[in-house]
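Hey, can you fold this one?
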Amino acid sequence: MIFTSATEHAMRGLSEMAARGAMGRVMVDDLAARVDVPRDFLAKIFQRLARAGILASTKGRGGGFTLARPAHAISLMDVVAALEGPGSLDRCVVGIDPCDERAACPLHDLFRPIRQRLKDYLATTTLADLGASLRANPAWQQQRPAQPPARGDVEQHRS
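Sure. Predicted structure:
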């Protein structure tokens, strides 16, 4: 869509983590199979997110990934900035460089409000929001085995 495949795959994996409600470790193999993303690609993406402070990584037996902060404290803008760069949403929509107020492309003024709405949405939408949306999806519920919420459920971390 409008993001790189790395960002799209990250959103899928992080949404699944948040929907599970687990602050415990998640194995990349399990998560990749669940969200239908190549395992090695997801592992590289998650390593980048760990370096950015969005995930925490533990190596070795019993290792895996956890959210570095509660899901409600991680915005989608945090994820986009970590994977695409902090100014990624300010790039010209038609690829002209430079494209700014002094040297604007033909679509610059038309896309300004759209760009701002997208930034606002990404800044105010969190992984907890994605997780709640995914949990409410009947197709997701049917694919999940019945199990009690994981210890350390994301909702318990909201203050």
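Confidence is low (pLDDT under 50) at residues 146-159. Let me know if you want another pass with a different chain boundary.
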